[in-house]
Amino acid sequence: MPAILPPPTRIYLLRHAEAAWAQPGQKDFDRPLSQKGYADAEVVADRASDMGYKPDLVLSSTAIRCKETAEAVHRAVGEAVDLRFVDELYEATPDIYIAIIAAQSVESVMLVGHNPTMEQTLEALIGHQALSQTLPIGFPPAGLAVLDSDKTATGWRLVDFLFD
């Protein structure tokens, strides 16, 4: 697994909000957020903004539910934040998520992606024990992990976790 050396010094990992069930013939990729998902995405985005969590760059999967979640963040933190959609984040492995983060030259980056990859990426960055203490039942939809660079063996420290 590639290492992430600063920059970035802050990483935000945001799992997309709750998706609607697929309609007959609809691809998983094309599933939008449910009504609850829209509301949860807005709430988490607003809470993050209120707490001063403002990434320099937001990278989102191109799946519809991730785009809609990322757009809620973009509205909440300000249109000046760079928002990009990355095909490789859909059906990716934690190695790909980490490589994408490591390739960025900004101080803070947010990934908007999918589970189980989001949870596995968080575990790779903070360790199994910290993950199980923080998220004993898993990474919830619209959950936002905030990590800061640390001088410990793992290199990253979970400083906050927001969810609705």
From TrEMBL:
Substrate binds at residue 65. Pfam families: His_Phos_1. Coiled coil: none annotated. SUPFAM superfamilies: Phosphoglycerate mutase-like (SSF53254). PANTHER family: OS09G0287300 PROTEIN (PTHR47623). This is Histidine phosphatase family protein. It comes from Rhizobium grahamii.
